C-alpha cells in the first residue's frame, strides 16, 4: 500500500494511492492520527478501499507528520565510504545530519535555488519512516519501529557542505536586530562555549 498526504477542498488528509494514480481517502486526517493507532501498519493494511470514491486532490504534501524530525546519514554503507575516499575524505563512522522541518516539501512543489551560482546537487535517498518512539534497538528489533519507507530527493548546496568542519551554513539573508550574516564569520568558524556556575542549576548558561 502507498500512502500519501493530500490537500483537497481546504482540508488535508491521508489517502491511499491506487494503481491508476487516483487517491482515495482514509479515516485519518493526518499521519499523527494514523501513527497513534495501537498498530498503525495493521490499521492501514486492513482498510477496504474497494467502495471508496477518488478524492479531487489539489496538491500532494510531504508524507510526514507536522514539523517532522528528519535525520539524514552519510557514509553508512561500504560503497558510500569508498566513494568518499576517492575524494580524499576518510569516513570512520556514519555522519548524521538533521534537516529543518521547513525544508521538507511535497513531491510536486518547486525547489527554490537560493542564488544562480549555488552549486546545487541532488541525490535520491531511501527514507525510513519511524512509526513509534523507540530506544535501545538492536539489529534484531530495529524493524519493529519502522512503519514504512518513502523516497526523498535530497537537494543540497555542495559549495557549503565542502567547507572544513561545516555541514550546513544555510542562513537567512537578514535577521531582524542582527547584523547581515556576511559581516560575521560563518558559524562553523566560531567557537561556542557553555559555562555553568557550580551550585546554581540552570543559572548563568552562556554560549
Summarize the structure in words.
It is a single chain. By secondary structure, this protein is α+β, with helices and mostly antiparallel strands. It folds into two domains: 2-61, no CATH class; 70-175, Fumarylacetoacetate hydrolase, domain 2 (Alpha-Beta Complex), CATH 3.90.850.10. It has four helices and eight strands, in the order E-E-E-H-H-E-E-H-E-E-E-H. The chain has helices at 31-35, 40-45, 78-86, 158-161; strands spanning 2-8, 11-17, 23-25, 59-61, 70-74, 95-99, 120-130, 146-157. Strands 3-2-1-4 form a four-stranded antiparallel β-sheet, with no helix packed on it. The longest helix has 9 residues, at 78-86. It is globular, with a radius of gyration of 21 Å.
Strand order of the largest sheet: 3-2-1-4
Please tell me the total number of domains: 2
The number of strands is: 8
- The percentage of residues in β strands lies in 25-35%
CATH class of the largest domain: Alpha Beta
Assign an overall shape.
Answer: globular
Can you tell me the CATH superfamily of the largest domain? Fumarylacetoacetase-like, C-terminal domain
Based on the structure given, which CATH architecture of the largest domain is correct?
A: Alpha-Beta Complex
Mind summarizing the main beta sheet?
4 strands, antiparallel
Query: Which spans have pLDDT < 50 for at least 5 consecutive residues?
Result: 168-188, 199-207
Query: What is the CA-CA span between the terminal residues?
Result: 48 Å
Quickly count the helices: 4
Instruction: Report the radius of gyration as a whole number of Å.
Output: 21 Å
N-to-C series of helices and strands: EEEHHEEHEEEH
Structural class: alpha+beta
**Can you tell me the CATH topology of the largest domain?**
Fumarylacetoacetate hydrolase, domain 2
Amino acid at each position: 500500500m502507498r500512502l500519501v498526504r493530500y490537500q483537497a477542498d481546504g482540508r488535508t488528509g491521508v489517502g491511499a494511492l491506487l494503481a491508476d494514480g487516483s487517491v482515495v481517502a482514509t479515516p485519518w486526517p493526518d499521519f499523527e492520527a494514523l501513527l497513534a493507532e495501537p498498530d498503525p501498519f495493521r490499521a492501514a493494511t486492513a482498510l477496504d478501499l474497494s467502495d471508496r470514491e477518488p478524492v479531487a486532490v489539489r496538491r500532494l504534501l510531504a508524507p510526514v507528520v507536522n514539523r517532522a524530525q528528519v535525520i539524514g546519514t552519510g557514509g553508512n554503507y561500504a560503497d558510500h565510504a569508498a566513494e568518499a575516499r576517492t575524494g580524499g575524505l576518510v569516513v570512520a563512522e556514519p555522519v548524521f545530519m538533521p534537516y529543518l522541518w521547513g525544508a521538507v516539501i511535497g513531491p510536486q512543489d518547486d525547489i527554490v535555488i537560493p542564488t544562480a551560482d549555488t552549486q546545487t546537487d541532488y541525490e535520491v535517498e531511501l527514507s525510513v519512516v519511524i512509526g513509534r518512539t523507540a530506544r535501545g534497538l538492536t539489529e534484531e528489533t530495529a524493524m519493529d519501529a519502522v512503519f514504512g519507507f518513502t523516497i526523498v530527493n535530497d537537494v543540497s548546496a555542495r559549495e557549503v557542505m565542502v567547507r572544513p568542519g561545516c555541514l550546513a551554513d544555510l542562513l537567512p539573508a537578514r535577521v531582524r536586530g542582527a547584523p547581515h550574516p556576511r559581516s560575521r564569520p560563518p558559524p562553523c568558524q566560531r567557537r561556542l562555549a557553555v559555562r555553568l556556575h557550580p551550585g546554581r542549576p540552570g543559572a548563568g548558561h552562556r554560549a
